[in-house]
Design a protein that fits this description.
Number of helices: 10
Helix content: 25-40%
Number of strands: 16
Oligomer: single chain
Strand content: 15-25%
Largest sheet: 5 strands, mixed
CATH superfamily of the largest domain: Periplasmic binding protein-like II
Shape: elongated
Order of helices and strands: HEHEEEEHEHEEEEEHEHEHEEEHHH
Radius of gyration: 19 Å
CATH class of the largest domain: Alpha Beta
CATH architecture of the largest domain: 3-Layer(aba) Sandwich
Strand order of the largest sheet: 12-11-13-10-14
Number of domains: 2
CATH topology of the largest domain: D-Maltodextrin-Binding Protein, domain 2
């Protein structure tokens, strides 16, 4: 992360864990920010490369750069010299409720766009296409036939995720090893390194991010299989569904081209692999629409 982003975070952010719901938002978020000068964002700590803590416990990730861009665009739109940012800790379990209850203005993370029922929440326009793949040790590439039933093969998954459901349906004869909690993906890939499991299944972008964080050699020691994902999905930011002005503003930030620059900065060494997967999924998803 550059010094500009670090200064921004050190001065302007406050990371909070929040469990007390408040009344759902009914007023314009843009008007609220004009009045308070405060932008409230939820961000994950367990989702490399979107939001995570690295060795010195500092928060890092793509979402922090996106928040910086969002803040600068807000200052222009609202003609305000200063907008403070308060960061709230979001998780796989509470991310939709934080938005629905009006605690935060948006949540940034690996959120698969789908229908949301019973909550005051919706998704922004997509900012990334990805899919489910398996991370394996390259030396086992010829030992495991992923077109077969995978009887006796140990496949790690994060519990209660779409990737778990897909792998269990596709390989019912495999041994599914579940990992839980905010360190689940990290521990799963460590188990792969220790040969306690044969593969770990997750979204391609999350596997690549974790490989980078754990300083593994993608392409030489570890590889993603199959070459193209089993399925494809789109990620979006989580927004309240009753504020069209806010939705339009956030979507305009997503489509203005800055996100591609962010991904190039974070994934310079594996940008080709990410672009191949994204292009494949983009074409697949467009065919299905």
């Amino acid at each position: 992360m550059n010094s500009k982003s670090l200064l921004f975070l050190s001065i302007l952010t406050l990371l909070l864990s929040c469990s007390t719901p408040v009344k759902a938002q009914s007023k314009s978020i843009l008007n609220e920010i004009v009045r308070t000068g405060l932008l409230k964002i939820g961000i994950r700590e367990d989702a490399v490369p979107f939001g995570y803590r690295y060795s010195n416990n500092n928060l890092a990730g793509v979402c922090l750069d996106l928040i910086y861009i969002l803040r600068e665009k807000l200052k222009e739109k609202l003609n305000k010299e200063v907008i403070l940012v308060r960061l709230y800790k979001s998780t796989f379990l509470n991310r939709f409720e934080l938005v629905s209850d009006g605690i935060i203005h948006l949540e940034c993370g690996p959120n698969v766009i789908r229908k949301i029922y019973g909550l005051n929440a919706m998704f922004s326009n997509p900012f990334l296409s990805t899919g489910t793949q398996l991370l394996i040790n390259k030396k086992k590439q010829n030992d495991i036939n992923f077109n077969d039933s995978l009887v006796g093969v140990n496949i790690g998954v994060l519990d209660n995720t779409g990737s778990q459901q897909l792998i269990e349906a596709k390989y019912p004869a495999a041994n599914i090893v579940k990992f839980q909690g905010i360190t689940g993906r990290f521990r799963g890939i460590q188990a792969l390194q220790g040969e306690k499991i044969d593969a770990f299944a997750s979204d391609s972008i999350l596997l690549i991010g974790e490989v980078i964080l754990q300083e593994l050699d993608l392409g030489k020691e570890y590889i993603l299989v199959p070459e193209m994902p089993f399925n494809c999905k789109k990620y979006g930011l989580i927004l309240p569904n009753n504020d069209s002005q806010w939705q339009e503003f956030v979507n305009s930030v997503i489509t203005d081209g800055n996100l591609s620059k962010i991904f190039k900065k974070w994934f310079s060494g594996v940008l080709y692999e990410i672009e191949v997967i994204e292009n494949f999924c983009h074409s697949q998803l467009n065919q299905n629409n």
